[in-house]
Amino acid sequence: MSSPPVDDFIAREARFGARNYEPLGVVLSRGEGVFVWDTQGNRYLDCLSAYSALNQGHCHPKILAAMVEQAGRLTLTSRAFHNDQLAPFYEEIAELTGSHKVLPMNSGAEAVESAIKSVRKWGYEVKGVPDGQAEIIVCANNFHGRTLGVVGFSTDAATREHFGPFAPGFRIIPFGDLAALEAAITPNTVAFLVEPIQGEAGVIIPPAGYFTGVRELCTAHEVMLILDEIQTGLGRTGKLLAEQHEGIEADVTLLGKALSGGFYPVSAVLSNNEVLGTLKPGQHGSTFGGNPLACAVARAALRVLVEEGMIENAAVQGERFLQGLGSIRANTVREVRGRGLMLAVELNPEAGRARRYCEALQLEGILAKDTHEHTIRFAPPLVITSDQVDWALERIAAILTQDLT
Q: 1 pLDDT exceeds 70?
C-alpha cells in the first residue's frame, strides 16, 4: 500500500498541532545510521542529528536491543523504590566523566532547571549568600531550553514575548568576554551558566583560552561553573566533553540529547559533592527521572559511543568537513565555523535567508537546519564516514555557489 501524500501529513499537522515549529517540507518515516528516508522513499543524509541527540546515529542496533530487552522486564518504578539499572548508570557515567554525584532527569531543560535550583541552594547553605539574593551569570545569545525559568534570561525576544513576568536573579554578559565576567561577579554570585560553544546562536566558538580564564575566575570567587554540554557533550566536538579542549573541569556539567542515542528522553546533572550534596529527600525529583528503561538505554548509548570510536571519528571527520567547507569559494559565504562535527556556515546577508539554502540542500539529499536567519548548521551523526563527508561537501558546494535570492 502506498503512503499518503506528503501534503496530507503536513496539512493534518497544521490542522491539529500547535504551530510552534516551522519544519522543512519533508515527512520522515525511517532512519538508519547517518541516513533517513521520507514517506516517498527518498533518502537523505541527516546533518542535524535531532540537534545532536543522534550522535550514535539513527536506530543504533545495540541501543535498540538494550531498550527492547529492558522494556520487556521493567520500565518504571518511580524513585519511591530502587531499581537495578540506576546504580550501574550512576557508576558508569561518573567513571566516564569524572563526576562525584549524578542527578538523573528527562529533558535537557529539566537538567538546566535542576542545576539552577541546586546552585542556589548551595549558595544559601554553603557560601552564605543572603536568602533570596542569589545571582547567576549567563551569556547573551544563550540557549538553555524553553521552560519559563530559562526563557526569562534569554536575549532572544521571540522566546520571551508575552510569556512574562520572569524570575529575577540573572545577570547577562557577552559570551567570550572574560573582563565582563569578572565585572559581573558579586558576593551574591553563585554560578556562571554557559555553553562551551553556543549552538543555537550559530556555533559561536569563544576565543582560545577563554574557558581557562573562566575556570580561574570562578575558582577565585567561589562561583560554581555550570557547563551546559547538552549539545556539545558526548563526542560532538571531537572530545567526550567540550571542556576537555581547554583541559578544565566544570563544577556542574549538564548532559542530555545523545545520552540516550535518540531513543528516549534522558538527561543528567553531573556535579561535585558540594552542589548536589545539599539536596535532601523531598526537595527535588521527577517521576520518570532515573527510571530503569532510561538508565538501560543511557548505559548502552554511552557504551557504544566509547567502544565504537565515535568520539575519535568526530574529531577526524569534523576536521575533514570543516576544511571542505572552508575551501568553498562562494560569494554567499561570510564565515565557516566549527569544532568536531558541530559546524556552521554563516551567509552574507545579501545572499538571502539560510532557509532557502536548506530547502535547496533537501532537494540534493541533505537535511540541514538554519538558525538566526543567515546561518546553516551541519551536525551529522558521529558515525559518518570520509566518503559520506565528501559526498555532502560536493552537494553543499554546488548549492552555496548558487544565487538563491
A: no
- DSSP class of residue 240? S
Q: Where are the beta strands (DSSP E) in 282-379?
A: 333-339, 342-347, 366-367, 369-371, 375-378
Domain residues of the chain, as ranges? 24-46+309-400, 61-307
List of E strands, 26-185 = 28-32, 35-38, 43-46, 101-105, 135-139, 170-173
CATH level 2 (architecture), domain 61-307 = 3-Layer(aba) Sandwich (3.40)
Is 143 a known active-site residue? yes
Q: Which long-range contacts (CB under 8 A, 24 or more apart) does 9-13 make?
A: 9/39
Its CATH architecture, for the domain 24-46+309-400, is: Alpha-Beta Complex (3.90)
Q: Examine the pLDDT at 76 and tell me if it is beyond 70.
A: yes
User: Which value, in Å, is the radius of gyration of the alpha carbons in the chain?
Assistant: 21
The pLDDT value recorded for residue 2 is: 60
Based on the residue annotation, tell me whether 228 is a catalytic residue of this protein: yes
Catalytic residue among 35, 89, 143, 211: 143
Give pLDDT, residue 3. 66
Neighbour tally for 241: CB within 10 Å: 25
